[in-house]
Design a protein that fits this description.
Blueprint (H helix, E strand, L loop, with lengths): L10 E3 L5 E4 L14 E4 L4 E6 L6 E7 L5 E8 L10 E2 L3 E6 L2 E3 L1 H5 L6 E3 L6 E6 L8 E4 L3 E2 L3 E7 L2 E10 L2 E2 L4 E2 L3 E9 L4 E8 L3 E5 L11 E7 L18 E9 L4 E6 L5 E2 L3 E4 L9 E9 L4 E8 L10 E4 L71 H5 L25
Length: 424
């Protein structure tokens, strides 16, 4: 699945990365989806946290092994916070409710990422018991900060341990600026005391942390990340891709048991993207495998897919280097992607199926050409907005108050154009 920030439907891809179409898990997805998912290896079920600016909640989603949504839980939150990532343990879903919230003023100002620092919003981390209801969520206050990505989390007796990349102090996603620093930290959440203890694991600026996916939700020893340079508005595009200036030329390997860090540098002017770990065999031990990342090669003006032996991380030359014919997104390995065996996700239904209905949270649904059936009940109604019924494909239009769509050439919801009277 190719996934998108803040609520749109994911897109299903073939094994050759051809686009199959939007995926609503056979009509069982009540709203949008999320950028990041976590796979529970014990059950084979992916988990996600979906958020959307007009909702008064975030939604925990579990996709069953049959490829349909088996459970959703709506967790009330205030102010429309951005929850880009979360963490999963055998006992809990870990929620990050931090002071970066939706801003209509940012929309009016034309900002591409209309989420701003909100000092009135209390920073907190939540524990949703697995299988529990929204009423069972416990919240724990933390110092003001921002988190894009978690490394991993696990249960430790009665406590929960979460490793993550933390932006200290105020961080404004709309302009991608903050006071910093940017560090790898460990949060220990203790429900018995109601406290969160924070420890610094590494103070080097870094992002896009990864671990061996097989240990998701379990105690981990190793982690991998990319060294980050200056992250600012000029180094990220409206599509969310980071420019070269936001990256540095090194990958890091963390041994959290030995409290040691190794760095593999790729030479001056190279830029290292997000790393992915691949085990040598399905039953190989943690760190017995390979670390893969796209590295921009300035001499060719294109990318190399570099493969490092994880247990010989600093070796030069690298284990293998595959040359690509052009530049590649440095986050292509995880940015908006989730991989699953093809038998687990049903193929999209036809465009005339009611399974493709997704109600706009701010609009009442309307019947569109080539579609039939009733829309799900998710979403509030605000009749004063254009009754497009095409959330979230055309949301830039009604977010800005426009009554004209201007998106008829490429609609991401079901592929059918809006009626001509709504077009530019």
């Amino acid at each position: 699945l190719a996934t998108v920030e803040a609520g749109p439907l994911p897109y299903q891809l073939s094994g050759e990365l051809d686009t199959i179409g939007p995926c609503d898990f056979s009509g069982t997805l009540p709203g949008g989806f999320a950028t990041h998912t976590k796979l529970d290896h014990a059950t084979g079920e992916p988990h996600a946290i979906a958020y959307y600016w007009a909702w008064d909640h975030v939604q925990h989603i579990i996709v069953g092994t049959d490829g349909t949504v088996s459970r959703t839980t709506d967790i009330p939150v205030a102010d429309g916070p951005m929850m880009h990532d979360f963490a999963l343990t055998p006992g809990y879903v870990v929620l990050l409710d931090l002071p970066v919230t939706f801003s209509l003023d940012a929309v009016s100002a034309g900002l591409k990422l209309p989420y701003t620092w909100n000092p009135a919003h209390q920073a907190r981390v939540g524990l949703l018991p697995r299988g529990g209801t929204a009423a069972a969520v416990r919240w724990f206050e933390v110092d003001p900060c921002w988190v894009f990505h978690t490394l991993n989390a696990y249960d430790d007796g009665g406590r929960v341990v979460v490793d993550l990349i933390r932006y200290a102090g105020a961080y404004d996603v709309s302009t991608l600026t903050g006071r910093g620093p940017l560090t790898l930290d460990r949060w220990i959440i203790d429900p018995a005391t109601g406290k969160v203890t924070q420890h610094r694991l590494d103070d080097r600026p870094q992002e896009f942390p990864r671990t061996d996916e097989r240990v998701t939700g379990q105690p981990h020893r190793y982690g991998y990340s990319a060294v980050i340079a200056a992250v600012g508005h000029a180094t990220i595009s409206p599509s969310g891709d980071f420019a070269d200036e936001a990256f540095s030329n090194a990958l890091l390997k963390h041994d959290l048991t030995a409290d040691a860090v190794q760095a593999h540098e790729f030479g001056k002017d190279a830029t290292a993207g997000e790393a992915v770990f691949a085990p040598a065999t399905p039953d190989a031990s943690e760190d017995d495998g390979y670390v893969m990342a796209y590295i921009h090669n300035p001499d060719r003006g294109a990318a190399d897919l570099v493969i490092l032996a994880a247990q010989d991380f600093t070796a030069d030359p690298v284990t293998a280097r595959l040359t690509c014919p052009r530049r590649s997104a440095r986050r292509a390995a995880r940015w908006g992607s989730a991989w699953s065996p093809p038998t687990r996700i049903p193929r999209p239904t036809s465009r005339s199926s009611s399974a493709l209905w997704v109600r706009c949270p701010r609009c009442s649904p309307s019947t569109l050409p080539g579609m039939s059936g009733a829309a799900p009940s998710t979403g509030a109604r605000t009749p004063s907005r254009p009754r497009c019924g095409r959330w979230p494909s055309c949301r830039p239009c009604w977010m800005s108050g426009s009554s004209r769509c201007g998106r008829t050439a490429r609609m991401r919801g079901c592929g059918s154009p809006l009626p001509a009277r709504n077009s530019n």
